[in-house]
């Protein structure tokens, strides 16, 4: 039971009071009275607008439902477009403009590279992500399936190590090439300190020598005893060549190179939303505590490794001697962004004067910004605060977020537009009005992206009444999804985001399938993305190689000249051309969706785990968050609604798949089996998501999940 303390017109959960007044505010020039009165003012001014916007969402959905019912089987795209304009779903596109955001760090404005997204309530994950700015290419190759075969047991596998060295040598030959020879022929790397600037030469087998083909790529060096680190730069990304003949790997390498360290995850989203299970004041405070620790730089986590406990903390900056003799410092950590929640949910961490929960997004905006005041340039060197805002529906909601951030800046006495915003293009109403959404935040925007899962979940719910959806895996072949991915980049480039803000693409969800990722994720760059999501530090390091292969800035210059994706394609309905589906196809689709829902929900409800590697129906580990539930539950709800399957079929499949999930989790000591009685809260939550899915606002899973998680927590007391 949450206990509260009154602060003016508000009731603040004791945990949150303590966090703000004892942990956040000391050493800041902001008083508790200012914070609590500011929050009260936000609730009074913004709360009613938030409520009105949610009502507008509901009204638009009712209008869409009615139109699709009336025109089922007789879809006319021109009539549809006129209808969307008439109800204000499609807004008129205004004159051309360019974004005007200032004081952006290079990681989001100029540089292109991988982006990690992690649940900030897990300190170990958060620290791993922040420290993933630099990663060992040798380790990433050695431990992944990019190098074929399995690692031999019993210590270092020298045969596999030789394959790693060969792969890395080929990488160096392509992107840090020597004038004539291969890095595989190098006996020694020699820094000529007498030259101005210092020059790099190499001694080769056979007694000859060589130099870099592009000498300007050599930036600095660092000597630490017998260990020499050489720093290079290519496409704006740094990489280190580490030479140490006393190291087991260096001893077996002709040149003494023991590792290649790549600048990897330039940015990391510390997530308060889809990848966390924060349903009450206790959970929210844990989220805020970890974000505060990241901003202060004092977050730690104990990690068990090799039978020992290791304290993990944030990496320090990296220091070098530049080629002109100057000191050179590079960031040791990813630039950290924080993803707030959307406009939908409320939180019991604060109650208003009538005892009602306040909008959670309003609380996030103030408290995450307040925590960020502790950043003294260790994160943002420009003094900016980066908030990613998810699940906004259209320009009105983007404008509301802009006004909310204005007011937070006023409360905290920050210059206007200190708080930057990342607009996640994951709702249909935002996609079709993306240019106007960006216009509403043009002075603070730093990021747009696409996300297949949430966007597909919203697509299904938006056109629920139009007919039965194509199978989930077939969605990627539909016209709307290709148009969506192109449209996002086209709009971003048209408003001047090239070289000024991030254009992102979505997650690679299979952390164990790195060879497959390496073969396909480079396509995100070819599509015009300056960043793309990866599930782990290892994946970030491997994906970083794509940014050496492709020059994103040059690609974007080419793409900006192509015709914009067609809005009509974007509004093509992903419904079956024929409603006849075989019994085998129905059974396969239900099994896949039900297993995915149950595998994720059972950890969310019973253990409060919002993001983890969940085995799919084929036992492959997938990094899952709530977006998985949204698409899968909405898909089954759609098929139920259109009689493609029946309620008893779904019930039977849920029970059968619950036993599969129980078996997959049998080695987890914290796991609570769903079978054989199927009466537990987690199983009931999965049922709710499907059978109540059609009635959920925009198909979101949060209302049902939060209610069931609170129920489970009450049972655990």
UniProtKB/TrEMBL annotation:
Gene3D superfamilies: Malate synthase, domain 3, Malate synthase, domain III
Stretches assigned to the Malate synthase C-terminal domain: 585-667
Domain Malate synthase G alpha-beta insertion: 156-219
InterPro entries according to UniProt: Malate_synth_C_sf, Malate_synth_sf, Malate_synthase_TIM, Malate_synthG, MS_C, MS_N, MS_N_TIM-barrel_dom, MSG_insertion
Any Pfam family hit: MS_TIM-barrel
Stored SUPFAM superfamilies: Malate synthase G (SSF51645)
Subcellular location per the Swiss-Prot or TrEMBL entry: Cytoplasm
Pathway noted in the entry: Carbohydrate metabolism; glyoxylate cycle; (S)-malate from isocitrate: step 2/2
Keywords for the protein's UniProt record, in alphabetical order: Cytoplasm, Glyoxylate bypass, Magnesium, Metal-binding, Oxidation, Transferase, Tricarboxylic acid cycle
This enzyme's EC code(s): 2.3.3.9
GO terms under biological process: glyoxylate catabolic process; glyoxylate cycle; tricarboxylic acid cycle
Residues at the active site: 339 (proton acceptor), 625 (proton donor)
Cysteine sulfenic acid (-SOH) found at: 611
Cross-referenced HAMAP family: Malate_synth_G
Protein name: Malate synthase G
